[in-house]
Design a protein that fits this description.
Lyase, Ornithine Decarboxylase, Chain A, domain 1; eight-stranded mixed beta sheet; TIM Barrel; binds pyridoxal-5'-phosphate; 384 residues; 2 domains
């Protein structure tokens, strides 16, 4: 919950808007440095979680690289000062134009997901008279035990190269002279709250790394992706995720050879807790069996509840009246435009301010213009 001095300043801005607490971001980045970078791990920030220029500036200053999934993100990373040699490019469907942009900047590594992609990348690299460094994104068939829409490492998912295809891909690489295999890559899902899937991932990564090296390739990059979850129910008590436990697990379970480095791609865990969506109550309405609080933010500003049935904590910033039960809903013409059902919060009235918490990741980046809604500029705590 924010102090009154902040709340009175937030009142001066037109709602709905994203509010980023830079102090929380900095504390999080300090922990990532102390627990991750200090062990020699390479950490790429997944721009798809948040690509605001100001956020990227802090992320870059902390010493993280960039993990991009589109040409637009590569361009944004470069514009924000990330060096091309710390940019990884992932994605199951890279267009020729995006590949050529990445080649022209000689980025660190392409994470490749299919035999056909390898052939296309080889051809385009040849056309540009260059060699592309690649990591194979392998599908380890590990259940991340998270929502099915954000599980990515199972056999039936569209991501990665399946184990059955690995041999033929390795065979084919011998003839793809404009590609240099430097590593293997995994990403099993997002908002992973249990440790077991990561342990299983380590075991699979060790097996696959040994197997591929046994076939005569040298892998300097072992990239285990991202996916570390945050606590959506208690953002105040858990503003900074437990990175020590996370990195300890990998340090203890990944068997690196002397020439190998461990890489991560963290998104949500870096920026999730520092952002809130600030919205105003437009109307309250009594339904047959429900009280509705109708707010001026909708699924157009934060789609996660509608898309993944995600639950964000709701803090009422300007009321401490006795609590009441509400459905907190947006103005968009869709019944899925609901932030929370049956949530007990202080009674609100028209004009009250509400913070929808833990919205720093996959919030503002997924904003849409549906219903021709106006996008308000985001607000940062260090420039309130
Ligand atoms: C989305 C994504 C990430 C980041 O995931 P988080 O759950 O936000 O940490 C990392 N790597 C790849 C390939 C991704 O697609």
């Amino acid at each position: 919950m924010y102090p009154n001095s902040i709340i009175s300043k937030l009142r001066n801005h037109k709602t709905p808007f994203y509010y980023y607490d830079i102090e929380v971001l900095q504390q999080t980045l300090e922990k990532v440095k102390a627990e991750g970078l200090s062990r020699g791990f390479h950490i790429h920030f997944a721009l798809k979680a948040n690509h605001q220029q100001k956020m990227l500036k802090y992320v870059k200053e902390a010493g993280l690289g960039a993990d991009c999934v589109s040409g637009g993100e590569i361009q944004q990373a470069i514009n924000c000062g990330f060096s091309p040699d710390e940019i990884a490019f992932a994605g199951v469907g890279k267009s020729d134009e995006e590949i050529e942009l990445a080649l022209s900047h000689d980025i660190f590594c392409f994470n490749c997901e299919s035999p056909q992609e390898l052939r296309v990348l080889n051809e385009l690299a040849g056309k540009h008279d260059t060699t592309a460094r690649i990591a194979l994104r392998l599908n380890p068939n590990v259940d991340a035990k998270t929502h099915k829409y954000i599980t990515t490492g199972l056999k039936e998912n569209k991501f990665g190269i399946n184990e059955e295809d690995l041999d033929s891909v390795l065979d084919a690489l011998v003839d793809l002279g404009n590609l240099k295999l430097i590593g293997i890559h995994f990403h099993i899902g997002s908002q992973i709250e249990q440790l077991q899937p990561f342990k299983t991932l380590c075991r699979r990564a060790n097996e696959l790394s040994s197997y591929i090296e046994g076939r005569g390739f040298k892998l300097s990059v072992i990239n285990v992706g991202g996916g570390f979850g945050i606590n959506y129910d208690h953002p105040n008590d858990n503003a900074v995720p437990d990175f020590k436990t996370f990195f300890d697990l990998f340090e203890q379970n990944i068997q690196l050879k002397p020439h190998q480095n461990l890489h991560f791609e963290l998104g949500r865990s870096v920026v999730g807790q520092c952002g809130s969506l600030i919205t105003k109550v437009l109307f309250t309405k009594k339904g047959r069996a429900k009280n509705f609080a109708i707010v001026d933010a909708g699924m157009t500003e934060l789609i996660r509840p509608a898309l993944y049935q995600a639950r964000h904590r709701i803090d009422v910033l300007t009321s401490n009246k006795p609590k009441k039960n509400y459905d907190v809903v947006g103005p968009v013409c869709e019944s899925s435009d609901t932030f929370r059902k049956d949530v007990t919060i202080p009674e609100v009235e028209r004009g009250d301010l509400i913070a929808i918490r833990s919205a720093g990741a996959y919030g503002e980046v997924m904003r849409s213009a549906y219903n021709l809604r106006v996008a308000r500029p985001s607000v940062y705590s260090d420039a309130l």
